[in-house]
Amino acid sequence: MSKTSGHVQVLTANRLGDGTVVFLNFDGDWVASLTGVVIARSPDEALGLEARGRFDAGRNLVVDPYLVDMREVKGALLPLRQRERVRLAGPSVLGDVPGYLAPAAPFAQADVEPGGQGIEPDRRGEPRQASGPARKEAA
Amino acid sequence: MYRYDEFDAEFVRQRVAQFRDQVQRRLRGELTEDEFKPLRLKNGVYLQLHAYMLRIAIPYGTLSARQLRKLAHLARTYDRGFGHFTTRQNLQFNWPKLSDIPDILDELAEVEMHAIQTSGNNVRNVTADHFAGATAEEVVDPRPYAEIIRQWSSLHPEFSFLPRKFKIGITASEHDRAAIQTHDIGLQLRRLADGGLGFAVWVGGGQGRTPYLAKKIRDQLPEADILSYIEAILRVYNLHGRRDNIHKARIKILINSIGADVFAAEVEAEWARIKDGVLKLPPAEIERIAGYFAAPAFAARPPPAGLRPADRSFDRWVTRNSHAHKQPGYAIVTITLKPIGGIPGDASAAQMEAIAELAERFSFAEVRVSHEQNLVLPHVRLGDLWAVYQELKRIGLAEANAGLVTDIIACPGLDYCALANARSIPIAQRISARLAPRQEQVGELKIKISGCINACGHHHVGAIGILGVEKRGEEHYQLLLGGSGAEDAALASITGPGFSPDGIVDAVETVVDTYLKLRTGPQEAFLAAYTRLGAQPFKEALYGRA
Hints:
heterodimer, A: alpha+beta, about 20% strand, B: alpha+beta, Sulfite Reductase Hemoprotein, domain 2, Sulfite Reductase Hemoprotein, domain 1, Alpha-Beta Plaits, 5-stranded antiparallel sheet, about 35% helix
């Protein structure tokens, strides 16, 4: 774990049945949001989380558990790596996918700082490419 | 096109039933992920960044309208309403549930499709010139040979656990639209010195972290010997290819380690041993398979195009997106899945259905998928172009940009892919929007974008290539210039320090501006100008004088 102040870790994986990105919460459940997520603030706590991940993977609840480095700012969690920000928020281009049918359960986008994962609009006025509402398909 | 016989149909049905059982055992906890992973990969199922992904084979890029309708149905029923056409002429669904995948495969089997060997260390989907069977440039249609190789390689017991994945590409034209020199084996079908048909055989091409162009090891291989020669190549590779290091396991590494001459000598020795055995292709068998690919019933004298309103957009579309056909009165039509600012290779279920309808009405129910992530209607009467164009306009796919600077290849990148370091799609979208107003002025210029070193977006062979990397946790992009995947194949070179997501869009525009300023005229394409000028003026424009 990073020694920098404010850096913590949470445990993530993909749900076995549908591959959904999930996080371990305080109730011991794997949920698709950072709300109530277990936070490791020390190497010992991180080791404990890793062991829990291996245990639940062995029980076939989840696949490929691993720790994600986060920055904790005023109670909010932000992944340090862009990869994890995209993984948490979902593809940044869904608003531009032709004919995109949104699922019933949305991504946990509220957990990401505004603008934290999207590429900002080009200053020359090109279309915004960050995620947004699904675009009506052309036909 | 090829139709399953009873053996094919039973083979695919059995495979789906086996995988259904494997999925159920996995969901019940009777298989661990370590046990299940190689099984799902053999059936094209990946676990990506946000969900499972199913990669469906489109053999040599040939689809029927019925098959395309089925893909649309699957997108709507089991996925999120769209599919992504890839640089290997496959289609990927990005959101299937694991529990639904056996049902998807059952439905695919109904239309003679599957996902077998679209992943794993085996021979992958054989790719081909997307104009095959329609272009006047080819000596013969290469797809029967691709189909023969597909049948031979499917579940080949000796080659189901190769050191690494293995890709074969085939063309029958001098103008290489299949990028054969970037494949593990590239085949060019040609007329031999004795007048018969045969192949030039290239081996050891590939992109990824260590890019190499393939080397020609045979110039005149008779068509009857194609399977035995490929088998000899794979045997030598299977024997000597490294299995201790995944980054050094591809055949390109082996060939560049021992030398193409040494490799070729070993292949020739093995081939001499097996060439007169069971793999010798009888002419009758080649003819039988070729029969599936017989030309459709073209009208000998199609009626002339009728009068239509003057329409400059249509004229531009015809100029850019239609291509000469071997049959007088017909054209090949490219439908670029690259609307300005859109996502390269994505098509909605409704768009797929509309294109299937167009194929049924105007192209003998045939569709092709190109490695440049576009679709093709291979046989359209000239008199029907206006009607095709009108319908493509209605569904938002009538952009006249085939081969232009907005016809960008981009891998799924970090938006979907678990391997990626940076996003590709938003960069493609922004470059497309930025350069669209000048795309006709710029002319042919191929931009190819990969979100990681694995190079699924073919950045090594882009006239302008972009490679996404991770730098201190953030996205960063390297710029490469001067590559080509065609018959003048060349690997692009990195220009210098990389760029931020904003900076890479500006950098591409700088390169384009420099080209426009320095070219001798519109007739000098970007690659020709780059070859003449070298990298220096572009580097100076990007980074200033050293």
